[in-house]
């Protein structure tokens, strides 16, 4: 997950800190925040009269996702964040929790004539929801989204109100972006069944 905000950079650099600790600190900050490398391998955060010294983690141990390689296929769509959050809420409950059914442990995402379609099933029930897209291009072949990505995407999109979001899927990763944030996750490798065969053609 990445996020950006307007800042004044005095000296460029990078630092890795525990996410939950940083979240708790920023929650209580009111006004301008100053962040700098402190002494003894700590990150110093100042806000008003308060100062925190956060422990630094090894930046070299953080896994890097290979995003610079040209993908074999790619799909990009743009839709309402609120619509996407609603679609995830309408389908994620049907994702299978059985570890032996790996192909059903995620939700299928497709770019169809109906828009952006999410499908999930545990073998006993199936949930499908489509949202309209304002823009769409690329490979229409579906991809399997992991449950952790669905949970985070739903929470972030629900807080984005009417902000438009962009969903990009290639052969390895899924990327969801808003105005100042980006979520990237690896796709699941399982094979999702042909759900169209179990949907009655006439109702």
Shape: elongated
- End-to-end Cα distance: 42 Å
| Order of strands across the main sheet | 1-13-12-11-5-9
Q: Percentage of helical residues? A: 10-25%
Written as H for each helix and E for each strand, in order along the chain, the element string is EHEEEEHEEEEEHEEE
Low-pLDDT parts are none
Q: What fraction of residues sit in β-strands?
A: 25-35%
Question: Largest sheet, if any?
Answer: 6 strands, antiparallel
Q: Structural class of the helices, strands and pairings?
A: alpha+beta
Radius of gyration computed on alpha carbons: 20 Å
Total beta-strand segments? 13
Mean pLDDT score: 82
How many helices in DSSP terms? 3
Plain-language structure description:
The protein is an alpha+beta fold and 203 residues long. 16% of the residues lie in helices and 34% in strands. It has a six-stranded antiparallel sheet with strand order 1-13-12-11-5-9. Helix 2 (81-91) crosses helix 3. The protein is elongated, with a radius of gyration of 20 Å. The model has no long low-confidence stretch (mean pLDDT 82).
